[in-house]
Specification:
Number of strands of chain B: 0
Mean pLDDT of chain B: 87
Strand content of chain A: 5-15%
Largest interface: A-B, 79 and 80 residues
Low-confidence stretches of chain B: 5-31
Order of helices and strands of chain B: HHHHHHHHHHHHHH
Number of strands of chain A: 12
Number of helices of chain B: 14
Mean pLDDT of chain A: 87
Structural class of chain A: alpha/beta
Radius of gyration of chain A: 26 Å
Oligomer: heterodimer
Shape of chain A: globular
Radius of gyration of chain B: 26 Å
Shape of chain B: elongated
Largest sheet of chain B: none
Structural class of chain B: mainly alpha
Distance between the termini of chain B: 91 Å
Distance between the termini of chain A: 92 Å
Helix content of chain B: over 70%
Helix content of chain A: 40-55%
């Protein structure tokens, strides 16, 4: 029997709508904040789906739940591609208790949504009792004392810490040791740019002699961005950066670098910058054709097929590279030119220090239904015990000091001793990155050259740099506006209940605002053509 | 037909459910509005300040600040905030009037779409003149340094620096005096001020508030300026201090290299 007007499509539509309604209802009203057995439920959201990581979280959660029988922790693992969208919808609605602080979150969103933990960081982490970190302030239990990376940036910007890293990220070369031995007769990994180029030349010869399709390095847009433009290029501008900064030791902000470019304090023909382009052209010559169209996964696939001797990837990729490769894999350093290099050496100050970039920076959400419990879990997650679980189960780089690691993982640790890295025009901002990427074929293509690239990119880069500077100003002014309101609120609250701490915090915020405002007003004046650098 | 009717009935419910998933379950109850402002919950704060009534000058200030930050931002709200600050500034001679002048300066310099720095400077001066001891007068002076020194023509820069430096000396709150000197030096670095003058200002900043040496950028700038101007003993002192309190920092190797080039003992250090 059929109803009049009955159609299957209508039934499916009704079912879909009903399903959407049920899911929404669950999200809005029925999502448990307590288990039926009365335990508090904490939700931790991240995008760590790499091999072994979810298992590491599970293992850490099990230990925490044993230590805290009244708490149940649930991890929400969202694929990285959809994470920004998912995160934004959560921020509009009912966010998790702990959220991974990705680069998609602005400083303003962080200040609004995440609880500051500055004061807590100066007290010891109770979960480190019985270890060498017992009694050490929580902040100093991290390998970089939170002076760099995402937490350090937040602090510089907002004068408060909002998140802490659970693991670190580094970029490294991964080597096919079987091929390396076949090509050069030993398994010694190159330490410098000079050594890696020697091996690359030998690889080319090896492939030509045997008629094999084998490239020295599996390239990708990641290799160009992460290795070449962000790191190797930076080695060429270490000195220049010191000259552009207010004093030799201070790091210029992206806005300061952009201003320096727009005011012709350096150009694309400045020897340091030109050396950077030359370095990129030389290095890209060892990659497979159309490398700039490939992504990191494509490059790893090429490497795992033994079509490339080495690949550049992040420390978080180590497990997936090992699982895909049917050959022994070793981790090597990034190949920086030394001061002895005949062409590039004169620009080098020394081996660059690597920022201890936190890959899993977590913050406690202001709207958590159990913020104290969430903070307690975060302390556990960054304790030496949990860090060891992440190393043992997930093969991750620990952000916490004193964790035991196998030798391959040790090689992934960021180099925290060395000299400040320089910059490339990529540092101006997203628009400039795009302009460089779309014109890169003029530099690295068969018909390309440094001269041609510089001629082609001069105008688009200048226009992009202006757009980037405009964006810096807009973002800074937005933050400054909110800080204005927060300052008055802090003052009023402190006046109601005199508290030296909040007065100090207001003063710190005021100084941070001044620093930001000085750059923003100066940048805006540059854009209007009204800034006169000197008489 | 029944399915179609059912679909028509359920679809809006489903849509409402979906939308609901992305919004808070309930509006937050009116809480302490200053805490709402601090937590950037501007609309909650505005509602709560309104409830307190316009007779209460503090609530009025809070309402003005809420308008300044309400999202989505609109010029109508900025104008409302401005009107409230103007009312507060013109109808009293208390601290709230000084704060209102300060915020009129802020509106003119950063909250309007088209800033008017001359107008901002006028309001900051009014805040300073109202009561030089006030915290907000001190804040206004720092903001005055920013808007005036960044926008003054190059030929007038040095004269204005001298004038603002001599006024900064008179600030009674050490932290803000320190900040004012630091700001003059920071802007001076981009406007051709000599390293000697910048060192003098940074030392004045440090002496006003020695605790600032705990900040890595401050310590590094002071040490570098001392090094660049040949004040070796000072450079050594500040570099040593930096290495002591920042055991992990990207500048450590640079600093160690510089320390190695400094004469160890017995050199004379001219007073900056």
């Amino acid at each position: 029997m059929k109803f009049p007007g009955y159609r299957w499509s209508n039934a499916i539509a009704v079912l879909l709508v009903g399903l959407a309604f049920s899911v929404s209802l669950y999200h809005v009203a029925l999502r448990p904040i307590r288990e039926t057995d009365g335990r508090t439920v904490l939700r931790i959201a991240h995008f760590h789906l790499h091999g072994g990581l979810r298992e590491a979280y599970d293992a850490a959660i099990r230990v925490y739940e044993e230590l805290n029988p009244g708490v149940s922790v649930r991890q929400i693992a969202i694929p990285i591609r959809v994470f920004p969208t998912w995160q934004n919808t959560q921020l509009l609605g009912n966010p998790p208790d702990l959220l991974i602080i990705s680069r998609n979150l602005t400083f303003e969103q962080i200040a609004r949504e995440v609880l500051p933990i500055t004061a807590e960081l100066e007290a010891p982490n109770p979960y480190n009792i019985g270890t060498e970190l017992e009694g050490v302030p929580w902040r100093e239990t991290f390998v970089d004392h939170l002076e760099g990376g995402r937490s350090g940036q937040e602090f510089e910007y907002l004068r408060a810490y909002f998140s802490v890293p659970t693991q670190l990220q580094s970029t490294r070369t991964f080597w096919n040791m079987r091929l390396l031995r076949e090509i050069v007769g030993n398994e010694r990994l190159p330490e410098t740019y000079e050594e890696i180029i020697e091996i690359f030349e030998a690889t080319r010869q090896f492939a030509a002699d045997r008629g094999r399709i084998l490239f020295p390095i599996a390239g990708s847009n990641y290799t160009v961005g992460e290795l070449l433009l962000d790191r190797l290029f930076g080695q060429m501008t270490q000195r220049l950066q010191g000259e552009l900064a207010r004093t030799v030791h201070l790091s210029p902000t992206p806005a300061d670098l952009t201003i320096a470019f727009l005011l012709d304090r350096f150009s694309l023909e400045t020897p340091e910058i030109r050396a950077g382009w030359e370095l990129i052209r030389e290095f890209c010559g060892y990659m497979q054709p159309a490398f700039d169209q490939a992504n990191r996964d494509d490059a790893i696939f090429l490497f795992s097929q033994e079509r490339a001797l080495t690949v550049v990837a992040g420390s978080q990729d180590i497990e997936s590279i090992r699982s895909q490769a049917n050959f022994p894999v070793s981790v090597g350093p990034l190949p920086y030119p030394t001061s002895k290099h005949p062409r590039f050496g004169r620009f080098v100050v020394g081996p660059p220090i690597e920022s201890a970039d936190g890959l899993g920076n977590f913050g406690v959400m202001r709207r958590s239904h159990a913020p104290e419990q969430a903070l307690d879990f975060l302390k556990f997650l960054t304790s030496q015990r949990a860090a060891q679980i992440f190393v043992d189960v997930g093969g991750r780089l620990p952000a916490t000091r004193g964790t035991r690691m196998e030798s391959e993982i040790l090689r992934l640790l960021p180099n925290l001793v060395g000299y400040r890295a320089g910059f490339s025009p990529n540092a101006f901002g997203l628009e400039s990155r795009r302009a460089i990427a779309t014109n890169l074929n003029f530099l690295t293509g068969a018909q390309g050259s440094v001269d041609r690239f510089v001629a082609e990119i001069e105008r688009p880069l200048r226009e992009s740099a202006r757009r980037d500077l405009r964006l810096h100003v807009r973002n800074a002014i937005q933050t400054i506006r909110h800080q204005d309101v927060q300052l008055a609120a802090m003052d009023r609250i402190a006046a109601g209940a005199p508290d030296e701490g909040s007065t100090d915090a207001a003063f710190a915020l005021f100084r941070a605002q001044n620093t930001l405002e000085e750059v923003a007003l100066r940048s805006a004046a540059v854009l209007r053509g009204e800034f006169e650098p000197a008489q | 037909m029944p399915y179609q009717s059912l679909a028509r009935f359920v679809a809006p419910l489903g849509l409402a459910g979906l939308l609901g998933a992305f919004h808070p379950l309930t509006a937050s109850p009116p809480s302490e509005p200053w805490s709402d402002l601090l937590g950037l919950r501007f609309s909650d704060a505005a509602v709560a300040f309104r409830l307190q009534g316009t007779e209460d000058r503090r609530a009025l200030l809070g309402l003005g600040l809420s308008f300044l930050a309400l999202q989505p931002r609109s010029m109508a709200n900025i104008h409302r905030a401005e009107a409230i600050f103007r009312q507060l500034a013109e109808t009293g001679a208390d601290e709230l009037a000084i704060i209102a002048h300060y915020y009129l300066g802020r509106v003119a310099s950063v909250h309007r779409d088209v800033p008017d720095f001359a107008e901002a400077a006028r309001y900051y001066e009014l805040a300073i003149d109202a009561d030089r001891e006030s915290l907000w007068a001190h804040r206004a002076f720092c903001k005055l340094v920013l808007v005036r020194l960044i926008h003054v023509p190059a030929h007038d820069f040095a004269r204005l620096c001298d004038q603002l430096e001599s006024r900064a000396v008179l600030l009674t709150r050490p932290g803000y005096r320190s900040e004012a000197f630091r700001l003059i030096a920071a802007i001076g670095a981009h406007r051709g001020m000599s390293p000697h003058d910048r060192l003098r200002l940074m030392l004045a900043s440090y002496r006003s508030d020695p605790s600032r040496l705990r900040e890595a950028p401050f310590a590094l700038e002071l040490a570098d300026l001392a090094y660049d101007t040949g004040h070796n003993a000072l450079a050594r002192e500040y570099y040593d201090h930096f290495l002591r309190i920042h055991p992990v920092h990207f500048a450590r190797s640079h600093v160690q290299d510089r320390l190695a080039t400094l004469p160890v003992i017995g050199e004379s250090t001219p007073s900056p």
